[in-house]
Amino acid sequence: MSAASDMQGDEQCAMNMTPMIDCVFNLLIFFMLISDLNQKDLVELTLPVAYMAEEDKGQEEDDRVILNVDKYGQLMWKQKNVSLEELGTILQNARDRYEIKMKQQNKSGLEALPGGGMASKLYVLLRADKDTPWQHVQWLMTIMAEQKLYKLQFATKKFRDGNYKDDAEATALDARTQKEYLAGSKGGQ
Description:
Blueprint (H helix, E strand, L loop, with lengths): L2 H5 L10 H20 L26 E6 L5 E3 L2 E2 L2 H21 L5 E3 L5 E11 L5 H13 L2 E6 L12 H6 L5 H8 L4
Parallel strand pairs: 1-5, 5-6
Antiparallel strand pairs: 1-2, 2-3, 4-5
Helix pairs in contact: 3-4
């Protein structure tokens, strides 16, 4: 038998797909974890409706603190329940990290207040349920002021006539039109 006929033997070549399948599953797991981490600061709440609500463009994680308050007044930060005492420490640490970051960029993380004194430029996004008693929001604002944090953003959602694709989308978000809101408010009561 010749060498050429030995090379053409009865063996068939086949590609082993196992490593490629492993890679695909690893990529799938990676993207599932990353998409979950993007929402780690958000808690399921029914946000209040505001006519002038604007879309949140988001900021870097160190450029703002996101706080959630449910309708029972429970404060949550990064999916963990925290007390008001712990909140003071959390805000102080966030403010310090922000100021260090700004110094590294040769910027100031502080701004002058009227009447003297300095305050941080760090933002706090407050996501409070629409049924949260105002008292709980007031306590948070007091703790923010103690930490020299005065830039507060309130999370809201738009009225139905605020650029929704259709009524189904607005209804799914529990939104109302401005006319429905004004008719139901009875002069601010």
